C-alpha cells in the first residue's frame, strides 16, 4: 500500500541562505521548488501519492548517503577538512537542505543571532551568549542605551524572536544582568559630556492600526513604523537602509515585510533578511508609555552633574 502524502517528509526545495551560488544553480533551485508545488496539483490521488513516495525514497537515500560521506571525510581529515568541503557554496547549500552537519546547540544559537549582533552594535550595546543547555539560552545584554524607557525589554524581545525563528530547540531565554562597574574612581582629565538617546514622540498607539506600515520623518529622519501582534517596531525607511527607495510602500505577509522595489524580505520583528541577501534593516529603539509611541532618533549630549 502506498503511504499517504501527509506521512511523507519530503525535503522542501527552497532558496537557502547560502551566498555565492552560481546563477544556474539558483535557477535550478527555483525550478525544483515550483516543480514540487506543481506536483501538489496532480488530480489523480494515487498518482500523486506514488510521486511523493518516490521523492521520499530519493530523500532518504540522499540524506543517508550525505551523512555517511561527511562521517568518512571527518574520519579521514578531521573536522577541519569537513568544514573546508562545506565552504563550497553548492556543497553547503545541498548540506543545508538536509540539515547537515548537525550543529551543536551553541553553534545553532550563534547562527540564529547573526542578524541581531549588528542591531546591538548600532545602538552601542553588546550581546554575549553565556551558555546553552537543553534549549535554555543564557545571555548578557550590556551597554545598550542605559536608562532608556523600554529599551532593555525591546532588545530582549529581539533576541527571543531571533532564537524562536532560528534555533529549533529553543525553550527559554535568560537575560543576566551585566557585572557592576568597577568601584575605583577613574582619573578625570576634564569634564566630558555624556550622551543619551533623544526620544521623539511619533504618535498615539491607538492611531496605528494592527498590520499598518506608516512612514514618518521626525526631525528629518525618514523612518517607518509597523504594528504587529501588539508590538511596535521602527526602522529607517529605505531598502537598503539609507536608500531613497521607500520601504513603506511594501507589504506585510504575516511577519515578513516585502520590499516593493527588489522583493527583499525582512522579518519585521528583528529586521533580519529572510532571503539570501546580505544586511538587514536599521532598527531604532521604541518605547510606548501611556499610549504614546516614542522613537530614539539620535543622541544628545548631557553635561555630567
UniProtKB/TrEMBL annotation:
Protein's name in the database: Rieske domain-containing protein
Keyword Iron-sulfur: yes
Cited function: May be involved in the formation or repair of [Fe-S] clusters present in iron-sulfur proteins.
Residues making up the signal peptide according to the UniProt record: none
Keywords, alphabetical: 2Fe-2S, Iron, Iron-sulfur, Metal-binding
Region described as Disordered: 173-193
Swiss-Prot/TrEMBL GO biological process terms: iron-sulfur cluster assembly
Organism this protein belongs to: uncultured Rubrobacteraceae bacterium
